[in-house]
Amino acid sequence: MIENIINFLGNNIDAVYIIILSIFLGIEVISKVPSILHTPLMSGANAIHGVVIIGAIIVIGLADSNDYLSLILGFLAVVFGTLNVVGGFVVTDRMLEMFKKKK
Fold first, then answer.
1. CA distance 18 to 52
2. Tens digit of pLDDT for each residue in 60-81?
3. Against a cut of 0.85, is the pTM above it?
4. What are the CA-CA distances from residue 64 to residues 8, 29, 46, 69, 81 (Å)?
5. Nearest to 75 by CA among 86, 94, 61, 90
6. pLDDT of 22 above 80
7. CA dihedral defined by 14, 18, 24, 30, rounded to 10 degrees?
8. Domain extents for the chain?
9. Average pLDDT over residues 26-35
10. Torsion over CA of 83, 89, 91 and 93, rounded to 10 degrees?
């Protein structure tokens, strides 16, 4: 088991470096965002997570019927991605309601 993980990391070391650098870059970018812009930025980012849903559907579609781990992870990704997208739209809608004139 450990040998498989080490082999995987050794074969995909470029991807590991990219992920690590992306984490540091993401932390640096988000820490520079003013607090007044944080909610609109996050609601928009949540809405973009439709890409996660598409990827999860592809994983489910390409998984073998006996590969329960891929099917379960794909299903969970669809559920959580959908919740994230809907939550992003709900927060955006609430923010836009604050700027409408009251009657």
1. 19
2. 999 888 988 889 988 998 999 8
3. no
4. 21, 39, 30, 10, 22
5. 61
6. yes
7. -170
8. 1-32, 35-103
9. 82
10. -150
Give the integer Cα–Cα distance in Å for 61 and 65. Answer: 9
Torsion of CA 63, 66, 70, 75, to 10 degrees: 90
Q: Can you read off the two tokens belonging to residue 31? A: 């820490």
User: At 1, which amino acid appears?
Assistant: M
Cα(91)–Cα(54) distance, integer angstroms: 22
Half-sphere exposure of 4 (CA within 13 A, CB side): 1
User: What is the length of the chain?
Assistant: 103
